[in-house]
Amino acid sequence: MVRLEHHRSSATLRDKDDTTAYLEAREHLDRAAMTPEDSIGHIATVANRLESTT
User: Fold this and answer.
1) Contact by Cβ (8 Å): 22, 2
2) Which three-class secondary structure state does DSSP give residue 22?
3) What is the DSSP letter of 8?
4) What pTM did the predictor assign?
5) pLDDT in tens, 7-19
């Protein structure tokens, strides 16, 4: 079972195909995501770039 929450609604996935697809998508996002350190560096780079253009 997968529980999806949103600020205005929620949904529960119970069907095996739906939960499998959700878990596969989550695994894909986990592999594609930056590390916390890389995220901090990227945010700092973008912030510096924006500050220098204003």
Assistant:
1) yes
2) helix
3) S
4) 0.61
5) 999 999 999 999 9
